[in-house]
Design a protein that fits this description.
Number of strands: 13
CATH class of the largest domain: Alpha Beta
Main location: cytoplasm
Active site: 127 (proton acceptor)
Structural class: alpha/beta
Enzyme class: transferase
Binding site for ATP: 10, 72-73, 102-105
CATH architecture of the largest domain: 3-Layer(aba) Sandwich
Strand content: 15-25%
Shape: elongated
Largest sheet: 7 strands, mixed
Order of helices and strands: EHEHEHHEHEHEHEHEEEHEHEEHH
Helix content: 40-55%
Number of domains: 2
Family: Belongs to the phosphofructokinase type A (PFKA) family. Mixed-substrate PFK group III subfamily.
Bound molecules: 6-O-phosphono-beta-D-fructofuranose
Length: 341
């Protein structure tokens, strides 16, 4: 068989581990050939690809990013791929395509699959918000980075009697904020799933200071937002169109808390540092298992599906299930953390 593979959407620690695993299973296990398209679906459409043999994937298991490059999707080009998918499969002489990506990529994978391309998807996102799988690789790494940041911020916060507001990734779901906040012992956690009252955060910090703990760390997901009217002081800059502009909730919340508490507050935006660098052992193992099962699915002809972690097992689930809805943090998980506002 000849299998095509690509990585699309935002990168994520563990992508290289999937690529390596697919090549090992396909080449060693089945005697297949593998080609890798560069920069996601763009490479598929524009004919940018390279053969992937054992040497090509040697030494990449622990490397962050993706050796194939990645790009976000342009809708029109995606439609072009779906309309021409039979011709594309013929052009590259591939029997199957394994796209690795998040919600957008899996939606694209489903479109190609519906149009007749033999596709097996592999989910990825540091946000862990794909509902059809219990976990995505990259999440464990991101939580580790954010936890370390919270640990470090606590010591400097304490030295200066400050409030630190650390903003982590998670536009639509607050899994990274929840788990790094729990692991790092953040005093406040704010998630996109629940609008937070700034009054409650102010009260919490004041109570801490009153009992002699003269610092606080608040972990806020980038997609978290305050309850209506609960942040009256931190107004954004007015741009040339008269619109208020904020550089993220972390900056805005730090300004609001400093004003209301009369204590120094500092924002720390972790950003893409959470997505870079070497994957944890957990993410390498999950990514490797996904790659292995994707190749097995190709050989069974189990197309239109993606790999998923269900409990401790890897299952194949319909691509349609992957993209129906995002997996958000349920209230029960917020309750366990104690410090979600
Ligand atoms: O979806 C993964 C993610 O890391 C989000 O948490 C974040 O909002 C986004 O990607 C950042 O995207 P970009 O790399 O395009 O800035």
């Amino acid at each position: 068989m000849r299998i095509g593979i690509l990585t699309a959407g935002g990168d994520c620690p563990g992508l290289n581990a999937v690529i390596r695993s697919v090549v090992h299973r396909a080449v060693v296990g089945h005697g297949d050939e593998v080609i890798g398209f560069e920069d996601g679906f763009k490479g598929l459409l524009d004919g940018h690809f390279r053969p992937l043999d054992l040497n090509a994937v040697s030494g990449i298991l622990a490397r962050g990013g993706t050796i194939l490059g990645s790009a976000r999707l342009e809708r029109d080009r995606l439609r072009e791929a779906a309309e021409n998918c039979e011709e594309l499969a013929r052009r590259y002489d591939i029997d199957a395509l394994i796209p690795i990506g998040g919600e957008g990529t899996l939606t694209a994978a489903r479109m190609l699959s519906d149009a007749g391309m033999p596709v097996v998807g592999v989910p990825k996102t540091i946000d862990n918000d794909i509902s059809a799988t219990d976990r995505t690789f990259g999440f464990d790494t991101a939580v580790g980075v954010a936890t370390e940041a919270i640990d470090r911020l606590k010591t400097t916060a304490e030295s200066h009697q400050r409030v630190m507001v650390v903003e982590v990734m998670g536009r639509h779901a607050g899994w990274i904020a929840l788990e790094s906040g729990m692991a790092g012992g953040a005093h406040g956690i704010c998630l996109p799933e629940r609008p937070f009252e700034v009054d409650d955060l102010v009260k919490m910090v004041e109570e801490r200071f009153a009992r002699g703990k003269k610092f606080a760390v608040i972990c806020v997901a980038e997609g978290a937002h305050p309850a209506e009217g609960s942040m009256p002081y931190a107004k954004g800059a007015i741009d040339q169109y008269g619109h208020e502009r904020f550089q993220g909730i972390g900056n805005r919340l730090a300004v609001e808390l400093e004003t209301r508490l009369g204590k120094e507050a500092r924002p720390v935006i972790l950003g893409h540092v959470q997505r870079g660098g070497t994957p944890t052992a957990y993410d390498r193992v999950l990514a490797t298992r996904f790659g292995w099962h994707a190749v097995e699915a190709v050989h069974r002809g189990d197309f239109g599906r993606m790999t998923a972690l269900r409990g401790t097992d890897i299952a194949m689930v319909p691509l349609a299930d992957a993209v129906t809805q995002l997996k958000r943090v349920p209230v029960a998980r917020m309750d366990e953390a104690e410090s979600v506002f």
